[in-house]
Amino acid sequence: MKSMVSELHLPSTAPDETRSSSGVSFGTSLRNLRSKAGISQQELADVLNVSRNSVNNWENDKTSPDVRSIIRICMELHITPNELFDFTSEYRSLTEARHLLRTFRSLSPVSRQASIRMLDALLEEEHHALESLYRERYGLFLEEHGVAAAGTGFGYTQEPPAVEILRKNSRNRKASSIIRVKGGSMEPVYFEGDELYYRPASEAFPGQDVVCMHGYEGLIVKRYIGKGRVESLNPAYPFQAGAGSEVTILGVVTGIVDEDDRPSPEEMHTLQELFHDEICQLQKQHGLWE
């Protein structure tokens, strides 16, 4: 698989060198992007497992983070390293290339080979570190075709589900599938067009929302109230099914899919390469391809 970090173009992180082609220092860039993301210094420090003082020193250009921290910062702020350093391709290709080439040519043949081996080892290490971070942050979910009604039900489709890559969070930690909502009987909790995370289950506790089958009503989303009964939440759509109404629970809802759960187009390209084998395996298991 193609190396992901080889395309990151990470510049030197020495405090007196981290100034972009536009004149913005690394610290200023980090502070601006962190604020734009709505994340405090303490929150960023907690994610990186460093002190708040460390983040403050970075933002004041007193010290600089290491490469692993830079990768984590970019993932947390949903940015690329090039955005963080605010370097243009022209700056990288001219200034950095000339400096690196001049330095490399000053080495002896033996030192050149040693440098190449060391750089290859560093790139490989960064590659594995980035892979680990992506696997830590993202997971695979099965997206069911069709919809689950919060209103009149829809027949359960036998079409195989699609495979989605989504950011892991507290709403989907125990989920493995998602399904779209149709109708308004579960407002104001779920609205038409919402996509719900759910974990496959045949039973539920009272108060939990479930994806279930109900006779002629088809596939529905309702609140489980115990003893095989489910109900709507919106009084404008009264619905209550008892234990004798053939309610079959298919899964327990764990949360709503947020737009921020989806990776950016740039991240998606990397993630599709990273999860290629797992995606193919799921597709085979669910009959998505022969």
Account of the 3D structure:
- There is one protein chain.
- With 290 residues, the chain is of the alpha+beta class.
- Helix content is 38%, strand content 21%.
- A 9-stranded mixed β-sheet has the order 2-1-3-4-9-5-6-7-8.
- A hairpin with a 2-residue loop joins strand 6 and strand 7.
- Helix 2 packs across helix 3.
- The longest helix has 29 residues, at 109-137.
- The chain is elongated, with a radius of gyration of 25 Å.
- Mean pLDDT is 79; it is low at 1-18.
Give a quick precis of the structure.
With 290 residues, the chain is α+β, with helices and mostly antiparallel strands.
Give the secondary structure arrangement, pairings included:
Blueprint: H1 26-36, H2 41-48, H3 52-59, H4 67-77, H5 81-85, H6 89-105, H7 109-137, E1 138-149, E2 162-167, E3 177-182, E4 195-200, E5 209-214, E6 218-226, E7 229-231, E8 240-241, E9 247-256, H8 265-274, H9 276-285
Parallel strand pairs: 1-3
Antiparallel strand pairs: 1-2, 3-4, 4-9, 5-6, 5-9, 6-7, 7-8
If strands are numbered along the chain, what order do they take across the biggest sheet? 2-1-3-4-9-5-6-7-8
Helix content: 25-40%
Main beta sheet: strand number and arrangement?
A: 9 strands, mixed
Overall SS class: alpha+beta
Distance between the termini: 24 Å
User: What's the overall geometry?
Assistant: elongated
Helix tally? 9
Number of strands: 9
Let me know the average pLDDT: 79
Give the uncertain stretches in residue-range form.
1-18
Rg over CA atoms, rounded to whole Å, is 25 Å
Order of helix and strand elements from N to C terminus: HHHHHHHEEEEEEEEEHH
